[in-house]
Amino acid sequence: MARRRQERYHGRMSAFPQDRMSVEDYLAWSEATEGRYELIDGKVVAQAAERAAHAEMKGAIYAAFRDEIRRKKLPCRVLPDGMAVRVGKTTVFEPDVQIYCGPRLGSSALLSEPMVVVEVLSPSTGRNDALRKLGPYFSLASVQHYLIVDPDEPLVVHHARGEGETIVTRIHRDGAMTLEPPGIELALAEIYEAQG
Which residues make beta-bridge pairs with 171? Predict the structure, then answer.
């Protein structure tokens, strides 16, 4: 069935879909299409081109998480952008960095249980990352931490799952933050100095 969907959209690789799509149709379409997209309420939304500072910050966070997971020998994996996260019946986000724990995903293009999701701010997506994604990310029971990172100055907004429906928010400008679970630290100096 996924193959039929892929063939259906493969011929329209350069065409931007105007109709609302299901998550399954979107995944087939995006697999055969160049560029970065998200599915918001059934509509495909193109992601703007990245600035160098944005790309460097994603790389620095990925490397810091990877090194910390290896150092602590945790059964978790860190992924760069490119992996989709389904957050509803008609919405798929593509975080800049994410962590999941458990067995490897294999050939899957969809991560269903991320534990940590990270969005690096950009001028075109800042409002969306700060406001529209908060509720949907925390609608996933697996999500324990949502980090919003400013690539231009030391500033990380850390949303963490609290008790019940509580989300605890902290603003970090220096030092390190602990992400429990899975039991790792993220030092701001490490990710910001990596860009310098």
Answer: 157
pLDDT tens digit string along 108-127?
A: 888 999 999 999 998 777 77
Beta strands 116-120 and 145-149 are parallel
Secondary structure letter of residue 26 according to DSSP: H
Structure tokens at 125: 């997506």
Q: Which pair of structure tokens corresponds to residue 107?
A: 């050939």
**pTM value > 0.90:** no
Across-strand partners of 48?
A: none
Q: Does the structural domain 52-193 have CATH classification 3.40.630.30?
A: no
Question: What's the mean pLDDT in 88-92?
Answer: 92
Confidence of residue 11 (pLDDT cuts 50, 70, 90): very low
| Domains of the chain, residue spans | 2-34, 52-193
**182: preceding bond cis by omega (within 30 degrees):** yes
Of the chain, the percentage scoring pLDDT greater than 70 comes to 90
- In sequence order, what E strands does the chain have? 37-40, 43-46, 76-80, 84-86, 92-93, 97-101, 110-111, 116-120, 145-149, 156-161, 167-172, 176-179, 184-187
User: How far from the centroid of its chain's Cα atoms is residue 67's Cα?
Assistant: 19
Q: Where does the pLDDT of residue 15 fall: very low under 50, low under 70, confident under 90, or very high at 90 and above? A: low
